[in-house]
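Hey team,

Filing this mostly as a record. A colleague (T.K.) asked me to run one chain through the structure pipeline before their review meeting, and I want the input and output archived in the tracker in case anyone asks later how it was produced. No errors, nothing strange. Just documentation.

Input sequence:
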Amino acid sequence: MKPFAERSSRNLEAPGSEVLPAVGALEPRTRPLVIIEPSRSWVELNLRDVWAYRELLYFLTWRDVKVRYKQTLLGAAWAIIQPLFTMLIFTLFFGKLAGMPSDGIPYALFAYAGLLPWTFLSNAVTNSGNSLVGSAHLITKVYFPRMIVPAASVAAGLPDFAIGFVILLGLMAHYRVAVGWSFLMLPCLAMLTGLLAFAVGMLLSALNVKYRDIRFALPFAIQLWMFASPIIYPSSLVPERWRWVLNLNPLTGLIEAYRDALFKGHVAGASLAISISVTLLLLVASAFVFRRMEQSFADII
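Output structure:
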């Protein structure tokens, strides 16, 4: 009598057919191979991811606000002290001693109206320029749109900006300067100032990841930018033939727009239009450069 295994195998065989191989001998199914590699061309901005992670923007902004004044004696009073004391020094040296013109505006108001947006912008650019390096522990561990990091650093300065405007209103009341309808332009001007700070800070933050000497050159560049902007002097002090060079600075039109909206009851359209155009171009260019360099952040940060 033949073994059962031999009989069963012969019964499964049909005339003219081949014996099926054993189950263990079956060839594995071919699976698709996915290779992830950086793009060799300019990438999309992918703003949908930024919107999807908007809650993270809020939490990072709130974190930066709390860290800024943690374990400080004066706390949020530093938002008032910096522009206020700088205004007092400028008023003493440039307004009283040097006799700097101020377009018929009390020099204290003239200087403070320029120092307030400048203080916000300089702090935002400095903080956002160093934000990616300071958040290396997040970037190397989890994915999220990296644009959120410099954006949170800029947004964290908005509370200080709002507090500074309260002091400005007090100064206007002291000098008996009336508030006109053009005061309603200030939220739009603040948004433009934030976009300019975000554009510059985003570009510098990306460059700072690869070239760490950016953090050493940044304070010097910020100081030069202040003297190249009509903060302590009016733009009318610059000769007419060279004023177009001053207007290429996007901060020129913004500072003049702040002063016009606060003290003159109107906003000059020409210089502000140049500032808006330069700001938008800089914002788009910085976003594309940032997205291009973003692919290597986690490797070299």
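Quick notes for T.K.: DSSP finds 15 helices and no strands in the chain. The chain has a mean pLDDT of 83.
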